[in-house]
Amino acid sequence: MTWLRNLIHVGSSSINPRTRNTSLLFLPTSLKHFTSEPNLQGSSSNIPRYSGLEPTKPDEKPRIVVLGSGWAGCRLMKGIDTNIYDVACVSPRNHMVFTPLLASTCVGTLEFRSVAEPIGRIQPAISRAPGSYFFLAHCKGVDTDNHVVHCKTITDGAKNLEPLDFKISYDKLVIASGAEASTFGIQGVKENAIFLREVSHAQEIRRKLLLNLMLSDVPGVLDEEKKRLLHCVVVGGGPTGVEFSGELSDFIIRDVHQRYAHVKDYIHVTLIEANEILSSFDDSLRIYATKQLTKSGVRLVRGVVKDVKSHKVILNDGTEVPYGLLVWSTGVGPSPFINSLQLPKTQGGRIGVDEWLRVPSVQDVFSIGDCSGFLESTGKPVLPALAQVAERQGKYLADLLNRIGKAGGGHANGARDIELGDQFVYKHLGSMASIGRYKALVDLRQSKDLLRCY
Amino acid sequence: MTWLRNLIHVGSSSINPRTRNTSLLFLPTSLKHFTSEPNLQGSSSNIPRYSGLEPTKPDEKPRIVVLGSGWAGCRLMKGIDTNIYDVACVSPRNHMVFTPLLASTCVGTLEFRSVAEPIGRIQPAISRAPGSYFFLAHCKGVDTDNHVVHCKTITDGAKNLEPLDFKISYDKLVIASGAEASTFGIQGVKENAIFLREVSHAQEIRRKLLLNLMLSDVPGVLDEEKKRLLHCVVVGGGPTGVEFSGELSDFIIRDVHQRYAHVKDYIHVTLIEANEILSSFDDSLRIYATKQLTKSGVRLVRGVVKDVKSHKVILNDGTEVPYGLLVWSTGVGPSPFINSLQLPKTQGGRIGVDEWLRVPSVQDVFSIGDCSGFLESTGKPVLPALAQVAERQGKYLADLLNRIGKAGGGHANGARDIELGDQFVYKHLGSMASIGRYKALVDLRQSKDLLRCY
C-alpha cells in the first residue's frame, strides 16, 4: 500500500495543470512573516502556544491590520492600495453583511447569501497576496506601545478544535469592530430575544418562526398557547424594527395564509417602541409609515420594556405581552472589547478620534464606524451609527492611508512628518426605510441634528 | 391603552381583504378532530398532557397517516386523492430532500434551498385542507390493534419549548420513515463523522470545510496540522461518496486555488472504500470513474475502517489517516424506530411487506421505501435502498389507496373484501452518478442482481 504512505502529501497529480496555468493572478505562498515561540506547556502538541506575524522589515510592504469586517472595515480594505500595503483582517465573520436587506432574509424574500459578501471578494489580495490574510478571530487586546494586537481564533461549534492565541504586529491599525446591540441592562433580553445584526440572527428568526408555525398545529395545543407561539413581538421602532415588522406582515399575508392556513388566524405582529417609530424621519413620513404598518396588521404599542421572561415581555406599566418570537432592535452601544481599550473615548463610550480619524494619543491607530466618534476637542458632533457614515469613513481612511504610504510613511512610526491633507467631513445624503408591501420611506433632508447617536 | 388589551386577538384589520378574497383555494379551519384529555400532572399548565386526532367517523373522509417525508412518503402524498382522503404526515423534517444533488450543496455548487421542497408544496392539502396536517414530530410507537400512532413533537434547539406527546388515529398507515446511515458498530463514527443525508449535514460539511480553511491560515499552525485540517476523508465509495469526492475536488480546483491561495497546497481528498468504488456499476464505467477521480486529485484508498478518533481514522491494517473533515457514506441499515416495531421483518431488518406493499399480519398498515422489503414468502428479492425504488413504490401505493378509497374501503378495517389489482413490480431503469468536472456515469442495464441491498 505505497499510495497510503504519502497520504498527507499533495502530489502534483492533485492539481489540474490547465487550471493552474490560467490562474495568472495567483502569487506563490510565502510564510516569511510567520514565527513561532517554543511551546511552554510541553512539547507533545504540534501547535506552539504563541505565534504571530512579526513586525515588517523596512524593505517589506507595511502591514495594515483591520479589526472588523462591517461597513467601515470592508470599505477601507476595498480602497487600500495593495501595491503599497499588505492587509490583515481580524474578525469573527469572514463576510460583510449588507445590513439594510437583512430583515428581508428572515422571511425568505431574499436568500441569506444575497446579503453576505465574502471579504476575499471585497479585497482579493486577502485571498491571494502572500502577506495579506484574513483571520477568523477575536481581538483580545491592543498593545499600542509595541504596535501589536493579540487575538484568539474562533472555533465556536467545532468539535475537537482548541482556540489558538496569536499576535499580529501592525504598521497601521484600524479599529472598525463596530458596536453591540444595546439591552439597556434589561434582564432576560440576551437569553430570550433575537437581535437582527448578523446572518445567523436572521436564520435563527426564520427557524423559530417556522418551528412555531408547525408546533402551533399540533393536537392538544390550546388556543391561548397557539396565540402565544404565533405572536411575533418586535422591540424598537427604528428602521430595523419597522422593516422587519413590515416583512413579517408581508409574510403573513402572502405565505402563512397559503401555507399554514390552519393557524393563519392566530399569527400577528406587535411593534413596541418607547417613543415615536422612525424618530429620525420627517413627521409626514412617520405618519405615513404608522398608517401603512397598521393597515398591514402590525399592532403598534407605545411602551417601555421592563423585563423579559421566556414566554412574555413585561412593560413598565405592568402589562404582560406573551410572545413566541421576540426580536430586539433598540439601537447599539459600545462593545466590551471597545470598553476594555485604554484609549480616549467620547461621552457615549466610543473611541475618540480627531479630524483625520486618528486616535490622537497613540501612533498609527485609527478608528472608524460605529465604534468611533469625534472627540469633543474637534468641535464636531459624534456621528450616528449608520452604514452611510461607516462607509464614507472607510473610503476616506483608505485614501488617507494610501497617501501616507505613497509618501513613504507606511511603516510603524513613519507618518509623523507627513501632511495628512483634508479632514474627514460627513454630509448626510438622506435616509431610507422599507415598510413592507413594496413601500418605503425616503427622507432626503441633509440636516444632521435629527439623527440619534449614542 | 385600549389597543393593548386585546393584544393577542387578531383583528380583521390585520388581513388584507384583497389577498383574502383571491385565495379561493383556502378552506375554513376546522378543529373537530381534536380532542384533549385532562392533564394528569396538574392543572397549572395550559397544555393537556395527551391529546390527539380522534378516529374518523363514517361520514368523514378516512385519514391516511404517513410516517416520513422522503422519496417514498412524499411521492405517496403527492399521489393521494385528497377528495377521498385526509392526509396527516408525521416527520422530523418538513421538506423532502432531493438527495442526488445534496453533495453539490456542500461546496456551493447549488443552494441548499434548491434541493429541499416543502411538503406543503408537494401536497397542498396539507397546508390548507381542514383535516390534513403536517406534524413536526417523531413517531414513538404504532398501536396496530387500535389503529393509533403515538408521537412526540420535535423542539430541538428551541429554547423554552417542551416537547409534546400526542396520538393520531389512522384509517390507513403508511410507514415510510426510511433507513439510517450504517456505522457497522465502529466506535467514534457518530461522534466524529458527518453523514450526508440531510440538508443540515451538507450545511455542517460546508461550515467545517470553510472553518478549517480559515484556521489553517492562522499564525502558529504547523505544516502537519495544516495538512490534517485540510485533509478531507470520505469513507464509502458508493454513489454518494464518489459524488461528494468529485464535488470536493472541483471546489479545490475552482475555489480554493482562487480564494484560499495561502493554503491551497495543503488541501486534498481521500476516498476510503473496502471493496471497489461504485460496485453496482458496470466494470468499464468503474474504471473510467477511478481514472477521472484520480486525475482530479482524489486519492483512492482501499481499506477497512476499524476505529474513528477525533483527529484520525484507523484502518484495519493499523494505518492512521489524520483528517480535518470526515464524511461517512457507507450505506444504510434499519433505524431504531423500525427495529422497535413488532412487525414481520426481512432478514436485513426491514419491515416485511407482501406483493401489494401491505404488512400482512395487521390491518391497514403499509410500508414503502428504504424501511421496507418484500417478505421471503413473496418469492421476490428485497429491493435496494434507492430513491428510484422508493419513488415507484410511493406512486404505486397512492394509486392502490385511491382505488381502495373509491371502492369504499378507505376507513379502518374497510378494505378486507376489496380487490387490490396488480401487484407492485419494480423495473430498474438504470443508475447515474456524477464524478465532478461536469462528468457523470450512466448505467442503463436493467439487471437487478447487481444492486446491493441490506
Automatic annotation (TrEMBL), chains A, B:
Record keyword Mitochondrion present: yes
Location(s), subcellular: Mitochondrion inner membrane
Catalytic activity: a quinone + NADH + H(+) = a quinol + NAD(+); a ubiquinone + NADH + H(+) = a ubiquinol + NAD(+)
Gene Ontology cellular component terms for the protein in this record: mitochondrial inner membrane
Record-listed E.C. numbers: 1.6.5.9
Top class in the EC scheme: oxidoreductase
Residue stretches of biased makeup (Polar residues): 37-48
Record keywords: FAD, Flavoprotein, Membrane, Mitochondrion, Mitochondrion inner membrane, NAD, NADP, Oxidoreductase, Peroxisome, Transit peptide
Residues in FAD/NAD(P)-binding domain copies: 63-394
Primary role: Alternative NADH-ubiquinone oxidoreductase which catalyzes the oxidation of mitochondrial NADH does not translocate protons across the inner mitochondrial membrane.
The protein, known as: NADH:ubiquinone reductase (non-electrogenic)
UniProt source species: Nelumbo nucifera
Gene: LOC104594915
